[in-house]
Structure formats: structure tokens, C-alpha cells
Amino acid sequence: MAEAIARPFADKLADYAIAKISRQFKIIQNLRTKVQDLENKRNDVQDSVDEAKRNALVIKSEVDAWLKKVDDLKKEADEVLNSTTNSEMQCLCLGCPNMKTRYSLSKNATKKIAAIDKLLEGKFEEVGKRAPLKSLSYHGFEDLKTRISKKRDITKALEDTAISIVGICGLPGVGKTTMATEVMTQVLKDKLFDDVSMAVVSKDVDIIRIQDKLADMLGFEFKEKTNEIARAGRLKERLAQNNKKRILVILDDLWTDINLETLGISSLNRPEGLKILLTSRFEQVCIGMGALTNIKVEALDSNEAFAFFENISKISNDDTQLLEIAKQVAEECKGLPLALEVVGKTLINSELYAWEDALNQLRNSQLEDKVYSSIELSYNNLKSDEHRSLLLLCSLFPEDESIPIESLVRYARGLELFKNTKTLLQTRNRTHTISDNLKGCHLLLPGYTEEGVKLHDVIRDFCLSIASKGEHWYMVKHDLVTEWPEHNAHESYSAISLTFQEAIRLTSRLRCGNLKLLRMQCRWGVRKVDIPENFLVDTQELAVIDFFRLQILSPIQLSKGLRTLCLNGCVLGIGMSFFGSLKNLEILTLFLSSLPVDFSRDEVVELSNLKLLDLRFLEGPCPLPPGFLLGMKKLEELYLGDYFDIRYEEKEHIIQEVSSLKALNSLQIVTDDTNFLMQLLQGCSEKLEKFQISQHHPFLPEHFRRFLSLENIDPNMLSEPGIKSLMRKSEKLSLSVKGWNNPVIELAEDGFINLKSLTLKLLDSEYLINAAGSIPSDIFRNLESLEMIEMSRLKEICNVNFPRVEHVTRGVSERLFHNLKSIYASDCDIMKIMFCESVAKCLVNLEKLIIHSCPLLEVVSVDTQENEITEPLSFPNLKVVQLRDLKSFVNFRSQPNAVGLRQTLLNKVTLPNMEKLTICGLGSIEKILSVEETPSGSPDRLWGMEVENCDNLVNIARSNSIKLLKNLETLVVVGGGALNVIFDFEGLNVNKDNEEEISILGQLKSLALRNGDYLVHITRMVPKGIRVFQNLKQLEVENCGRLRYLFSASMINSFVCLETLYVRSCDEIEEIFGREEEEGMASNIVFRELRSIKLMDLPRFKMFCSHNYELVFPSLDLLRIVNCPEGTKFCSGQLNAPKLKEVQIENYEVLTFPISLDCDAGSVHNPPSSSDCE
């Protein structure tokens, strides 16, 4: 009876339990799926981050934060999932499910699923951004007293709050641009400005180009490519993002007034921190632009001029006769630095008769302008007409543009500029040689890239003056916006170079019978300009055509003598038969052009003289039809573009035809078909002098030298002769190959002597270099950049231990990694040591060291010979150190018996040029610096430090080690499980008679503290009589839950330069300055520069300072207090803030902070209504 009554209840209970368990099981399964989805997304984002870092981008803080949250949440979710198999999931009886534990876990899992869903919603259009310019290395007039004085005058004017625009004016060649560049370097070094941006305006004003230059140096890109007005609005927003941020905009080489608004610079209501520096030959232009102060740069006096000239021309003081002639030559340059430099470099190592001849030429020059006459002297003394012709070709390009040497190669080839150059390779070598010679005599400057050059604007003007007479006759215009330029001398032109700022209508027929070179380009974002059908009918002498972003929608008649035809970025509505009659054509490039038609073999058989063919279409026929290349027996360079998803028979004929090209020495292709690539290389790899071969790079530079990138191939393929040959020649090599477990050095027998950049990903190698094998003497001799990513079995870079470096004067150790400038290591799971000490001593040129997510890494360098450390290990050129998520990391340097012990991070290591130190997630370090273990002078140049989530770190610096940070300018501290004080002054020894010693942290300008859950003090036990933070400008404290005040009242006079104060979400803070009071303090405290105070979400905050001081804020214009419910008044004494414009007091819906402001302008005793608050 009882059983019958109980059974239905038992059945229902069982059903309920089963349903409950089933639901809980589904929740756990759902969590597993979500964790996998999150992990997949994290890997995708991390790949993007790694790529961004390789491209020198700064990772956005929200991306770093997202990755950190993902890692933390995944760890928590894994704990939940692991608990589902734990014995606690069962009750003690019969192993049945433990309902209580299951309920708790499923509830926890549901929370994790919701948190994961929120993270999965995160989307990043881009993970990184270009870093704004922070420092420059520029040398010009450092030792010239008059220039130092002028530079000081300019800097002083820029510091004047009443002056927003400053002008630099002077003669051509007097050094205005050099002066502006040196000022830029100086103000960045002195931190007078947070950002500096510079653009050349020039005679041909190109608004889009100027905007791009300014944006580029400010570290952002325009989404709008063509709309000048929209771009101006975006630039204006960027310049006004923070009204207090100090930004200097330099506009160089103005020829006439321009409307700043069209660029994106406010003419009225300009942001307070924005200053503008102009340079112009004409003082009236600077005045018209609104410059209140104009600094005129004069020519050098005779003494300075000769000292400058003597240094340039390397004259010996022992040769009195030459010295006397040299002084007269220098006098003819009239104190103009450009003239002095050009002439001086022309006459280096010249005999006396050459000096006398130069003096005669300068004195009898027909040119009145002494700069031009000096350039003429250098021009006339060039080694050959080839040098002069190549220099004139450079003047065809817009001012300040980096001129690709490859463009000069193609022009020179088409114009047959050089004698005895039968091949394109010989032409390229000759072009590089002449370019180097021209740079040597200062007629050319280095470009923005390694493969480019530039012309000084004055030298460009001279070249154009030469090219407007005699045999040349150039027409050069880069500001065309309405119509084709009319000119009477059309027939005489030998070269025309035009840039269209708008989509203009071309003349129907170009009547230039002597024209040999035509260069026309349409600015990015502008609708492409159409080429009329009969446009080139009357240009039968034309040898070179270079069109960029134009349209040829129907066949046009071309000169049969055409040798170079570059149609890049063009839209072509023509078939290849269009080129069929060009029997002399040697160079044909179609880079990023659209050719939406097919073509067959019989259309191109006439291109038998072709030496270079670039088929990297934006849209075009791929693959090539059978027989396409067979008639091109002289082809030296072939750029095939992207080859994906092609059929077997298509691969076969391409392989055969490429192998038939006996003259081929350059090849470009992107393909993911490894077998196809191997067969393609089999017949040509040994011949290749230049190559760009990749399996995954969709966007590669137009010009290249020797680049090889292989991804996800069978590791055995790396031993194939074709691949080994290319790896041996490569300057840039990227390998992502799972399964290769031999030392990396075995991939090339000669030790990669040509390699400059090496990226390794997923390799299973334990070492890059293994002492067990033979080591080439020139191993990695020229390597400059090394990246190691996700090498899960890597133990150490090199297990070779050379003899102590002081006893080694030759052999491998003096060359190994000698030129290495950058090391990046990420996700190398078992690496404990990066390299042994004898290898570390070879890294004399290392500038950047970045290590991420290597969980077992303990030390950068260790002495494997177990010698006692008696002297510091020096990295003399290391500037940037970034260590992230290295939970086992102890320090930079250790001995074997000390590995695992906690020591100072910078232990026995000298870093005299380190500028930036970033450490994040270093769970084992307790100290960063120590006077006993960190050599004095080691961090002397350290100006930036970021410390994040180092859970055993107890302070940033303590006692006398604080003095090591004498040049620290910015400090960011985030998190820290044991960090209870930032700077602990206990035990500090100072000589109070030494002015330098009593100023501690005197260069610190920005301090940010976030998420300091255990932080109790920012400073502790500051001795009386010393000054701290006297140059601090920005102070930010957020989410520091144990701080009761920021600083003691005795330090209140230290903050004379403080400009912004931001405190938020600090639950225990009651006052900004604490209660303890020092005897003899003044009754009024002046915060001279403080302009903005923001106090937000401080539940226990009562007042700024409880002492009965009069607080004087002469510059304060914003006071914002939000959600501070305990506050009753701002201060105990009087508040004097004569410039205060905004008072915002909010507590969400209810305002509970009655504030009393006693100001010169009157008193405000009641808070504003809610409608007045933001």
C-alpha cells in the first residue's frame, strides 16, 4: 500500500531529476561549444594583432583589453568544465549525481555563457593604428651659434600662449626646412608638444596630399579618400579631440596664402594647445597666414659659413694654399648652407686645380642666385651626362615625393640613357650606382623608403630651370584642376609630367613631335581621366609612357618606337592586340590595372623584345592562355600576380613556358599550390636575382628585392633544391611550417648571409642554431629583424656557448647577430632561456626586444658556463623592451644556479639607451630596479614605462633606486596583486646641498594608475626638503579601491605644473591631499597650471583638502564632480578660481553635493539644476 502511494511521487521525482540533469548537461555542452567559438575568435584576433605588430602598428587598448578578458574568462570556463568530471559531481551513495553541485555548476556555466556571448559580440575593424611620431633623429645646424639662437627664438615663440602661428622666412637654401625639422625634433625631445605633424605645401598645392601627410604623422587614416571637405572635418576633429593636448602643425614651403580651413585647421576658435609653424621664402605670405611672430633666417656669417664648409668638404688645416682657396670658394656661396653643402661635397678629395676651377666658375656664373650658381657648379662637375640626365628625370616628380628608383630604371631603359647596358639588370645596377653618386654630392637625398630618393625643393627648381631650355624642355605641372595646360612650346617638349587633381578633359590631340617621355597620373580618389583616341597620334618619338589611374576605353595609336609602357592602376577596355604592333617594347607594366577581357596567343607574338612584364592585375585574365610567353625569349622579369584555384592543365603550360625563358632573372607570384610552385621554381630558381614569392600575402609592395614567404607546406619541401636556393638568396624570409624539427640553420648551408628579416612560425625546431652541427662562419651576418611565433618546441635561440667575448677577436662570435636590431618572440611554450650570455654579448646593435606569451621563459640571458657574474651585461643600443604575459619570467640575466630565484628584473644588465619599458603579466618579479643589482646609468634615458598585472611586484621603485628614474616622463601602472605603493622613499639617501639630488622624479610629466586593488600609497615616507613631481602635468587615478588620499598634505606644493587631475571609481578616497600637515606651510596653495579637475564615482569623497588653506587655481576652467554623495564642500578654506567657466556637479538623478566656490568673480553657493548638467 505504502509502496503504491510512494511510487508515483518517486517516478515524478525521477522524471524531474532526469529533466534537470538533462538541462544541466545541455548547458555544459553549450558552454563547451561557446568556449571553442571564443577560442577560435581569439586566435583570429591574435593573428591580426601579430600581423599589425609586424607592420609596426600600435595595438589598440580595447583590443589588448579584449584579449585579456578572453584569457581570464576562458580560464574560469575551463575550471567549470573540468569540475563536471570531478568526484564532487557525485554524491557519496552509489555514485549518483550530486544535484546540489550540478545546480551550482550549471548556474555558473550559464553566467559564463552570457559573458562569452558578450565577448563574441566584440568586433574590431582594425586592431592596430600607426603610432604618432614621438621622436626624430635629425642633424643639421647643431653647432652653429646663430642657428641655435634662431631655434631658441622659434621655440620661445611657440611656448608663448598669446601666439598661435609662428613664421620662418628667408632666402631659398638658407635652411628654413632644416630649421623647422630641428625645431620639431627639439620640441618632441623636450615634451613641449604631445604630437607634431609636418607637411610640405609647395608651389603646387595638393590639399589631399597635405591632409594625408598631416594625418600620417598624427597616426590616423582618412576613411574618405576624395572628399576634401569631409577630410578637413575629420582632421579638425583629430586636432580638437582634447582641447588641452599640445599639437604642433608645421606647414613647410608656402608660396602663397592658403585657407587653413580647407586643410582641416580651424582659423577661428582654434584649440588652445594647437600651434602652427610656417616656412616660406616670402615674409608677406607668413603675415597673410596670420603669423604674429616671424623669425627671419639669415645667411651664415663668414666665420660660421667657413666652419660649416670646412666640415663638409673635409679640408686639411695643414694645406695652407688649399685653405686660402677654400675660404674664397666658401665666400662665393654667400653664407647659404645649401650652397655650401653642395659645393663642399662636390670638392671632397679634389686637387688644388679643381678648387681653383670651381672658384672661377662661381665667380663667372651667369646666374645671379648664388644657390643656383653653386648647384650649377656641382651639376657641371658631375661625372657624366648620364648623371646629369638622371638628376633631371627626378625633377619630373612632385616636390617632396619619394621617387622610386625602379621608376628611374624604367625611364632610363626606355630613353636608352646609359651606354653599355644591354640587360635590364645592368640598367638597374647603373641607376643605383648613379643615384648613390648623386646622394654623395648632396644633389639627391634619401627617400622615405630604402628604394627611393628625394630632391631638395631648391635643387628641383634648379633642375626644372635647366630642363626648360636647350635640348630638354620639360613641362611639369602637378596641380591641374580644370583643363589641359596651354603652352606655345608644345612642339619643343621632350618630357611632360602632369598630375590631375580633378577629372579634367584632355586635349584631343597632343602636338609634341619631339616628346620622348609622357608621365600622367590622376590623384587617388578622383575619377579616372579618359585618354582620347587620337591623343598620341602626333607623338611618334615617344619612348616612355607612364600612366597612373587613367582610362583607355578604346585603342589609341602609340609610337612604334615605344620601349617603356607603364599602365598602372588604369582601366583598360582594350585587348592585348593593342600592344601587338609595339615591336620595340621592352617594359610593359599593368600593376593594379583592370583588363576585363581575355586574350589569346596570336595577339602577343610581336612582343619579342620584352624584358619586363608585370601582370599583377587588379582585375584581369588569370591564368595566362597557352603559348602566351613563348615568343618572349628576352624576358628578364616576370610578375605573374595571384594564382589561386587553377586547373592542372593550366599549371602545366605555365610551368613549361616559364622554364623556357632562359634570360629570366626576376619572378613574382602568389599561390597556395605548393606543388605548382615547386615545379615552377625547379627550372629557374638558380637564375633568380630578384623575387617576390608568397603563399599567403594578398597585399605586397610594388617594388621588391628578394622576398620568400612559405606557409603550411610539407617540411620536406624545404630541402628541395629550388627552395633552398631561394632561401639562400633571400633578404626577407617568412616560414610557417609545421613539422620542421631540425635547427633552422640547416635550411641554408651558408648561414643565411644575405638575410635581413626572418619570420618563423609553427616550426618544431628546438634551436635556430645547434652547436652539435657545423656553424658557418658568416651565420646571420646581416640579419636585422628576427620573429619567432608559436614555435611550441623552441628551447633557445642558440645553444652555442662561445668563449668569453673579451677573449674572442675573430670567427663566428664577432659576426653572429651583430646587425640584429629587432627580436620578436611570441607563444614559444617551452622556451626557458632566450640565449646564452656569450650570444647576448654579440647583440651590440639590438634596438627592440619584444617577448609575448612564453609561459616558461625565466630569463633573457644566462651564463651556461656557470661563471660568477662580475661585470654587467651590456645592450648598448637597446631602446624598446616589451615583456608581456611571461608568468615565469624572473629577470634579464641570471646564472644557472640562480634561475628560479626572484631577483631584480634589470639584474646586472646595462641598458644605457633604453627609452621605453613595458612589462605586463610578469607573475614572478618582485623588483624592477635595485641600486645594488642595476648598474648606475643603465636606465638613464628611460622616459616611458608601463607596468600591468605583475602580481608579485610590491612597488615600482624603492629607496635609492627611485633616483635611477631621473629621466622618466610617463608612467602607467595597471593592476598588481601585491602592489601597495608606487614609490617607497623609505631609506632614501640624498645630499640636500646637491640641487640635482633633491629633485626626485623631476622629469615625470604623466602618471596614470588604474585597477590598483591593493594600492595604499602613491608615495610613502617622502623625506622633508626634497622636491617630487615638480613637472607632473597629467595625473589619472582610476579603480584604486584602497587609496584614502592621493598624496600627503606636505606634498601639496610639489604640483606646480599639474594641468589635469582625473580621479574615478576609488571607493575609499576621502581627500585628494591627506590630513597630516607640515609645520610652516603657507596659508595659500597655488596650483598655477591646473586647468581641469574631474572627480567621478567616489562614494566616500568629502573634499579636495580638509586643511584651512586658500586654494588658488589661476588657470582652472573646468571643475567636474560626479556621483560623490558624501561631499559637503570643495575645501575648508577659500577657493580662488578666476577663470572657472564650467562647474558640473552631478549625482545621476539627484544632486547631493552642495559646493561653495568663493571666486574673484563672485560666489556660487548652490549647485546648478539638473538641466544645466551634462
TrEMBL record:
Limits of the Disease resistance protein At4g27190-like leucine-rich repeats domain: 753-854, 935-1067
GO molecular function, one term: ATP binding
UniProt keywords, alphabetically: ATP-binding, Coiled coil, Leucine-rich repeat, Nucleotide-binding, Plant defense
Pfam family, one: LRR_RPS2
Segments forming domain NB-ARC: 152-313
Coiled-coil region: 21-83
InterPro entries for this protein: Apaf_helical (IPR042197), At4g27190-like_LRR (IPR057135), LRR_dom_sf (IPR032675), NB-ARC (IPR002182), P-loop_NTPase (IPR027417), Plant_NBS-LRR (IPR050905)
GO biological process, alphabetically ordered: defense response
Source domain of life: Eukaryota
Signal sequence coordinates: none
Family: Belongs to the disease resistance NB-LRR family.
The protein's name: AAA+ ATPase domain-containing protein
Protein species of origin: Fraxinus pennsylvanica
